[in-house]
Amino acid sequence: MCSLRVLLVCPLRVLLLWALLCPGTGGAQKTFIVVFMENHRPETASTFRLHLVAYNEAAKVNVTIENSKFHQTVYVGSNNSAMLSLDNQYITTGNGLATGKVVTIKSDVDISVIGFNFANATADASFILPVEDLGTEYFIFTPESGLKKQFAVATGVNRIEWVNVTVSGSLTYNGRSYSTGDTFSFSLAPHQVIQFQNSTDLTGTRIVTSAPVAVFTGHVCYNAPGTTCDVLFQQLYPVRDWGKSFIVVPLANHTKDIIDIMAAYADTTVKADQKEYTLQPGSHIKLTVDKSIFLKSSKPVWVSYLSQDKNDPFLTTVLPLQIASQHYKFVTDSFFDNYITIVSQASSPAEFFLDQKPLSQYSVFTKEMNGFRSWEVSLGKVHGVHEIFHKSLPFSVYVYGFEASVSYGYTTSGLQPKNPAPLSDITVTSSCLPDGSAEAECSVNGSDPRYSWSLDGRSIFSDSLVTLPPPVSGILHCDVTNHINNLSRSINISCAVPLSDITVTSSCLPDGSAEAKCSVNGSDPRYSWSLNGRSVSSHRRVTLPPPVSGTLRCDVTNHINNLSRSINISCAVPVSDPVLDVRCLQNDSAEISCWVENGTDPSIYLTVSGGLEVYNVTSSEQTVRVTVPPVSPPDSWNIRCSAKNNISEKSTNQTQDACPDDYVCDCS
């Protein structure tokens, strides 16, 4: 069950057909894109050397750089290789977008491509992935030491509508600086590349794109122990092609080389060297390779290998065990003392044939671990194409070379069987995570599966293991296809999202009542309100009758967590119509009162006039009173009472006859 289909090999002649391998799926393909990344000596005779490897058919290869004058046609003989060099005018330098830098390689038959970034006293190499093996999600790795870590994102004939970057470290784009956790986006026109450089470690930066792109990483100037400044160059594999099981062996009998193990999925457990680590997306652990290491993870991871002990450094990839093959081709350069390391469960080097001779006829250094063996073979200063095969067992091959103050290294990877297996036994499993996201895995038996996912008909990912951001609810569908058949499986999924971001808002209404709303993110929220500790409602919105004053609290809960938020609230109540009361007393005097039944902080103004007398009384209490003497001669009283507060004003007028003897009037 493997989705990686990369590399190099094809039978040289009929004698090798029993290897059951051929080009046509994997690294031997017809179209490639690559960029010449900056090294620390771009002004000198820097070159980018493309080694084009043909199989049992001669190849006509067109190498073009769009938006430039570069175009060459190279003819490669069957079972041979050819080298083409690009000079330093095609280096991608600095930060930013560039055109006229993306190299497009198109062949009329299947070939493989290896790129060497070469300058005086510095070099590195990478196997170049065909466009069929590019992806839409990558994580960046850049070694820490030295200046100018760098990575580049490139496209061929397709426009990339969006590239989303989640930063780890520090990046600059369009004049703006971004630090860890920040995100930004851009688009790429056809045949365009964007390169980022910074002195901070960029490891863990995530790249997600609308369509497949090529991503390259490395270092302009890496300072290994005992060295000064060396270029590192490697094409990255997309997340969909990561693996779970690895054997790491020290190359060149080194004891200080470094591997970095990077995760793409939450809570990835990694067991290595009798220790266990838990990684989150974009996080990584660094281990010193002083002995062979068997590495196993619960979810796919990526493993880089940094050679930095005794010789100049190079950067390569440790490929997972499940993509090992039985037959490889690779190239070496006569400038270097060249080596290969083979990792396999084979019991003897005599079972391998290197350039048609048993491996036992070469100078071989052997190591063993957990049922695996590694054989390091010295090839010397040789140039050209080599082949190695085993008649029945898969194995992995690492190619590298050293010279004074310079080195290179790259990893080859295997093809699929000549008779690939159809897909069968598809299963889809899912689990909800505490933050409301979900993980789902699509598993299938068969050769070269390619995955696509949709949620309620909306395309989301193209990997066997996916993480869905919250909210997650609906029909999750996985489609898997290969060159023989296709399968699909759907499941219903629903994940509760924890409550977050609670807010309480309120507004006072003209009648002194209030409306309040409690807002929260999360699944299935349940609300309860209280005012000064007294329960008032169990809805998201609440209307509070007047008077409204005190502490208003909203509590929200669901099956995962609960939140609460309180606010102070006070709403003024408008004054009601003033009420007048006139009572005649025994001496023909009168007690006149005025009050309001409702209103916040009312001020009451009472004016009584009769004959030549005028009485004015003001009060901030709910009631105002005045006692007036008898009117002489007997007459009537003109009474006016008004009440007001900050939001309203009301008044009442009344004419009242003077009090006769023994008369009491209740004018209310």
Describe this structure in words.
There is one protein chain. With 668 residues, the protein is mainly β. The chain folds into 4 domains: 398 residues, no CATH class; 70 residues, Immunoglobulin-like, CATH 2.60.40.10; 72 residues, Immunoglobulin-like (Sandwich); 79 residues, Immunoglobulins (Immunoglobulin-like, Sandwich), CATH 2.60.40.10. The protein is built from no helices and 56 strands. Strands 8, 11, 12, 13, 16, 17, 18 and 19 form an 8-stranded antiparallel beta sheet that branches. It starts with 28 loop residues before the first strand and ends in an 11-residue tail after the last strand. The N terminus and C terminus are likely disordered.
Q: Main beta sheet: strand number and arrangement?
A: 8 strands, antiparallel
The rough form would be described as elongated
What is the residue-mean pLDDT, rounded to a whole number?
Answer: 86
Q: Measure the end-to-end span.
A: 93 Å
**How many helices in DSSP terms?**
0
The proportion of residues in beta strands is over 45%
Count of structural domains: 4
Structural class given helices, strands, pairing? Answer: mainly beta
Helix content: under 10%
Alpha-carbon Rg, integer: 40 Å
Number of strands: 56
Residue ranges: pLDDT <50 for 5 or more in a row? 1-26, 662-668
